[in-house]
């Protein structure tokens, strides 16, 4: 078997430099800049149709960008063919070779690269993903979870510089998905390759990745460590897509030391300047539901507060969610952990006060479209 | 055992169906259903295939009344088979050779066409499909007669080639090449359609996976696309080879006396030679057995899933 001469040995971080992919007038990926550090577990998170698969396909070479460059280390891969790139893909639909046994599926890559020990490598990788006992079968004789493992093995066996995973767990049930998430993370730590994991499940992205990039309409909205993304969203879209947020729109009216003061639907709220994405004019103000307290009496000190009535109470085990309607008409969601022996005994129609520590508040630019989309999604 | 190993381990039992748990009445109903569904087709085959076949077989071992040409009596006389094989061996050879050549050429023409239709044609795909099927709207014999005129000595093709001195024999019709060309033309759609269907069904992502796993365009074709289309190739070659081997129209209309195939012999023994009935029947049976044997070997060799 001849090794292909065009193969590019490249090592280093993966970089996308203002990459755009247009299909006709439509920009599936729009001026994307991205650096994925070598050896990291990177999650690309976004809703359906936001351009995740298109981005991966450009990195794999299955699609060429309309403009921009794709590099690994200092090697420019733009324009090269898929088989010339040190990149492998775990396809959204697995795409196993139906006519080959599992063993031959996994040995396919090593064989094409002329490796003499292709079969041993295949066996070894099948053991790593714990499906070595199925090596003699055909893909059609495997369950979805098993096929997923084989698809992973078929890519992993090549020890690519970058491994692309396109919603690899999307077709599996929740329990199996959780198992495989742990498994995938273990394997990534073990082999130390750069993983780019595409998903539209924010929980999956948060639990697995070192860095999460939130994508929307072909652009990266925000990128960072999962905890940072959650703690301080920078856009309305991220505030709603990564976890949930109580949001209200108003305007900045004052400064108070290192806080800014905004008036949101008649209530004055404070936000630490360090957490204010917008410090002037129109703002969207937000607090995460679990940061909001529900009180039976008006709070004595500190915080911003609003009086409202309980609209709904739902018990979820570890926490209880209260929906509270404020005088402005806004409905806020508050999670109270069920820590106390005597739970706060609240019912529909009860008068309550909500309160939060301003240290947890944030402001983001006003984005009607994203707010509307989120409202429709939860309605 | 870890939870994950358990997920892998359960698969061993997936083959077992739920049939054992079904209530008895339902099971009885279910058991008859397949036979009921087979009944109309089975009857059809019995009346129009099995009975005539047995009839043909009894004819093939009859003997002739000495001195009364055209009259036979019931017998178990296998010398008809011997005669069929010895007297008409060249025609048998030609049938198989011409059919094999036609199958080969049809494959060579059909695969690129089917490939283009499945992957490259875009919005032209349906028009190409119609173009492939359209010849079926006219009769097989008419089309072959048309070819005879196109290829005739004073027709456009032969006269052009002759003018350019490119035709060594001076003519196209009445040659073996014309017969093979006619067979190739007539059975081409039977090759194109199954190959097209299997290529069209192939998951584009699977073919892309070949490229992703370091196979260049040609290697991907050889190791992924072609094997995935093998069911179509096998169906297409069988659908071409079998009728081509038994065909007599092309040899009759496009070939010379020296290009006759078994089909022509059977035809003339049945309809033109007095006392030829048992020979014709024996020829038919021998041809059928030959084709069956070849198809069997072929499917055993290529029809299994272990293609590579
Ligand atoms: N070949 C194509 N031609 C035209 N439009 C395309 C093509 N491929 C993708 N698109 C469009 O580009 C957008 C992004 O598609 P993409 O497949 O990247 O989405 P995605 O983020 O992977 O979504 P999902 O989560 O549903 O898989 C979609 O609106 C899609 O319709
Ligand atoms: Mg996708």
CATH architecture of the largest domain in chain B, by name, is Orthogonal Bundle
Bound molecules: adenosine-5'-triphosphate, magnesium ion
* Spans where pLDDT lies below 50 across 5 or more residues of chain A: none
Please give the alpha-carbon distance between the first and last residues of chain A: 58 Å
The count of β-strands of chain A is 20
Q: In total, how many domains does the architecture of chain B comprise? A: 2
SSE order of chain B: HHEEHHHHHHHHHHHH
Q: Biggest sheet of chain B: strands side by side, in what order?
A: 1-2
Total of helices of chain B: 14
Distance between the termini of chain B: 36 Å
Oligomer: heterodimer
Q: Sum up the overall morphology of chain B in one term.
A: globular
Briefly characterize the structure:
The complex is a heterodimer of chains A (379) and B (308). With 379 residues, chain A is α+β, with helices and mostly antiparallel strands. Chain A contains nine helices and 20 strands.
Question: Could you describe the 3D structure shown?
Answer:
The complex is a heterodimer of chains A (379) and B (308). Chain A is an alpha+beta fold. In chain A, 24% of the residues lie in helices and 34% in strands. In chain A, strands 6-7-8-3-9-10 form a 6-stranded mixed beta sheet, with helices on both faces. A 5-stranded antiparallel beta sheet of chain A has the order 13-12-11-14-20, with no helix packed on it. In chain A, a hairpin with a 2-residue loop joins β11 and β12 (259-264). Chain A starts with 13 loop residues before the first strand and ends with a helix. The relative contact order of chain A is 0.11. The mean pLDDT of chain A is 89. In chain B, α3 crosses α14. Chain B has 2 domains: 26-57, no CATH class; 87-302, MetI-like (MetI-like fold). The model of chain B is unreliable at 1-22 (pLDDT under 50). Chain B has helices at 3-9, 24-60, 79-87, 89-120, 125-133, 140-151, 156-163, 176-201, 204-212, 217-228, 230-246, 249-254, 262-271, 277-302; strands at 63-64, 72-73. Helices cover 71% and strands 1% of the residues of chain B. Chain B has 308 residues and is mostly helical. Classes of the chains: A alpha+beta (379), B mainly alpha (308). The structure holds adenosine-5'-triphosphate (ATP) and magnesium ion. Residues 52-53, 92, 166 of chain A line the site of magnesium ion.
